[in-house]
Design the sequence.
């Protein structure tokens, strides 16, 4: 990414707990003027050559793995980012606070605090542009509490409590506090005073309220001197201005510039989220070609991937390959196969299919679902992504920065509107990558 002149030293080092969450965060940073690259996993050595940027986002697949392994991977990412020269560190998790009762948000936060020598961190998953807001420590999705939003039926991380102080408190060894909206609304100094008060009470992690972007900018300014910040991608809105105020970040008008990538296109959807189901249905209602990746057929040993490839060759236009289904059908499949096995079968099929589609000349991939995106990107052999303009809030166009160029849109389950698949295909074919 070098454009001549002195080598660009990264200022912000980010650790994301899934692949689509990483691109969501990277998109937010690019939109706020930071040239950003994303690595798929922790790079194997300490050489960051070819990744010159203002921010580096390390994408892990650690959201649902055992907490001790998530901690190990996150600390490895942190060490690599420290060696790369980053000054501030961001632990990014989902705007719906996806986690299991044992973690992994709490354990990873505590481990990173220890590694970076921090005694206070805020936790704020708010992303108002996508309807995720936090008020009095409770997380809302649109006008619904988190546990009434559909997330209570998530196959891997069912969220049945909207009170984030309780959710995070169950995952941590210490006490979780609250920075309420009245404090945030009073400004930066009020937030800092509240953090000092919480320290005095023995609290070291606090849920922070935010119902609008102005709240996120206030919080961002309040943590300008913190080594560690945690939250959803929205929490990153205010961080670039901190670096500008110190004269470390110049104004950048082409942070989102990407080279065009020509080739065939395909859509792969493994998410079972409410919005992804709507997006699949929108595609089907339009009479567009599609092929179902059925977990039960995979479990029976049927040649599902070969059938998918045959469909791709027959249609001669972008095909949607989807595993999405309704809640009742999903529950029936999980009851028969087990949630982990069902998910692994679909991920494996999507990964295998992506690799075969690449051999068929596909160079533009739209992928829905964090777990699916991780499996697909690894199968494609991509380890570095350059981040471009947003296709939808939280979903940027990206181009691989290593090997043969590929254009990818990696979408978290509930992101994007009903027509997202078409919107993304149009963006990758020219609009966002040209």
Sequence:
């Amino acid at each position: 990414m070098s454009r001549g002149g002195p080598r660009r030293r990264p200022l912000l080092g980010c650790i994301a707990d899934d692949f689509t969450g990483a691109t969501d965060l990277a998109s937010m940073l690019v939109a706020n003027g930071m040239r950003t690259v994303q690595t798929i996993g922790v790079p194997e050595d300490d050489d960051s050559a070819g990744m010159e940027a203002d921010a580096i986002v390390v994408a892990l697949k650690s959201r649902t793995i055992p907490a001790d392994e998530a901690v190990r991977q996150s600390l490895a990412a942190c060490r690599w980012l420290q060696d790369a020269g980053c000054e501030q560190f961001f632990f990014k998790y989902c705007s719906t606070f996806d986690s299991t009762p044992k973690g992994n948000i709490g354990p990873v936060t505590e481990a990173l605090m220890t590694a970076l020598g921090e005694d206070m961190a805020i936790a704020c998953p708010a992303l108002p542009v996508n309807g995720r807001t936090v008020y009095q420590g409770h997380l809302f999705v649109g006008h619904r509490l988190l546990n009434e939003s559909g997330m209570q039926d998530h196959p891997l991380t069912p969220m049945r409590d909207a009170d984030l102080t309780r959710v995070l408190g169950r995952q941590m060894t210490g006490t979780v506090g609250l920075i309420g909206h009245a404090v945030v609304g009073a400004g930066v100094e009020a937030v800092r005073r509240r953090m000092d008060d919480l320290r005095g009470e023995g609290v070291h992690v606090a849920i922070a309220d935010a119902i609008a972007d102005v709240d996120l900018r206030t919080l961002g300014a309040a943590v300008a001197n913190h080594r560690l910040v945690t939250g959803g991608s929205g929490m990153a809105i205010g961080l670039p201005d901190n670096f500008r105020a110190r004269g470390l970040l110049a104004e950048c008008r082409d942070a989102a510039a990407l080279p065009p990538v020509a080739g065939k296109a395909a859509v792969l959807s493994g998410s079972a989220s409410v919005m992804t189901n709507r997006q699949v249905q929108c595609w089907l209602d339009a009479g567009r070609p599609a092929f179902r990746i059925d977990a039960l057929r995979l479990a029976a040993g049927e040649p599902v991937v070969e059938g998918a490839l045959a469909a791709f060759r027959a249609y001669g236009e972008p095909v949607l390959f989807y595993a999405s289904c309704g809640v009742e059908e999903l529950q029936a499949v999980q009851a028969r196969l087990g949630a982990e096995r069902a998910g692994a079968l679909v991920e494996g099929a999507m990964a295998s299919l992506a690799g075969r589609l690449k051999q068929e000349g596909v160079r533009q991939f739209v992928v829905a679902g964090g777990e699916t995106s991780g499996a697909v990107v690894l199968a494609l052999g991509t380890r570095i992504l350059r981040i471009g303009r947003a296709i939808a809030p939280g979903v940027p166009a990206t181009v691989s920065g290593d090997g043969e160029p590929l254009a990818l849109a990696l979408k978290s389950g509930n992101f994007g509107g009903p027509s997202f698949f078409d919107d993304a295909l149009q963006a990758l074919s020219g609009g966002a990558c040209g």
Observations:
- The mean pLDDT is 91.
- The CA atoms of residues 296 and 333 lie 7 Å apart.
- The first strand starts at residue 12 and ends at 16.
